[in-house]
TrEMBL record:
PANTHER family per the UniProt record, alphabetical: VESICLE PROTEIN SORTING-ASSOCIATED
Entry superkingdom: Eukaryota
Annotated protein name in UniProt: Vacuolar protein sorting-associated protein 33-like protein
SUPFAM superfamilies in UniProt: Sec1/munc18-like (SM) proteins
GO annotation, biological process: vesicle-mediated transport
Organism: Aegilops tauschii subsp. strangulata (Goatgrass)
Pfam families: Sec1
Family membership noted in the UniProt record: Belongs to the STXBP/unc-18/SEC1 family.
InterPro entries: Sec-1-like_dom1, Sec1-like, Sec1-like_dom2, Sec1-like_sf
Amino acid sequence: MAQIPNLDNAALNLTALREQSQKELLSIIKSIRGKKCLVIDPKLAGTLSLILQTSALKEYGTELRILSADPLQTECPKVVYLVRSQLNFMKFVANQIKNDESKGLQREYHLYFVPRRIVACEKILEEEKVHQKLTIGEYPLYLVPLDEDVLSLELDYSLQECLIEGDTSSVWHVAKAIHKLEFAFGVIPNIRAKGVASTKAAELLNHMQLEDPVSMDNMGIPEIDTVILLDREVDMVTPMCSQLTYEGLLDE
């Protein structure tokens, strides 16, 4: 598991941002009383380890499991799935519930989408006839502090989804993440965008600011002056300007 990064010298109060994510997750855990098994998808396991210690979850009677295609091994009467909104994970969840039923096991099931629920995922759950057996919610984890000057949306496949699959949901996530930053650090006065996806994200952010405005009464001067959004396809070279590539490592 990754170590929780030290954010004491960050230019912004990223510790408060991380603590808010901790509070939201623990609120979910506390709301489900009694002994429970928290099942998280493999990628999310690493992400959560950057936010809080697993010992904090165990204090509330929580077992930890990694979601897979295999049957769930636990004796807990309550199961809490915490997964990203990906279609393949819905099949895993459905199969584990069906496997429990085939064994005559009676459990209480909860499913929390990260960062938000989507119709396509719920449709699969309905097709698998397990949707009604689940209590469904959201864990709005949009930004994860990796270092004092690095925030990650943890959208591993956004480039592939946008350019190849035509799925632009990650663009909405970018806008939502920036809007969430505004609630913490004030409305950002200057948004610069280059590229089709970045321009769309800026437009979505404008809509969010109108629909869910940030109260400026107690904010004072915004802590972030400018955000620059760049499409990856505008600059494909920069990620390769590192020795942490295959040829770079050979060169070293």
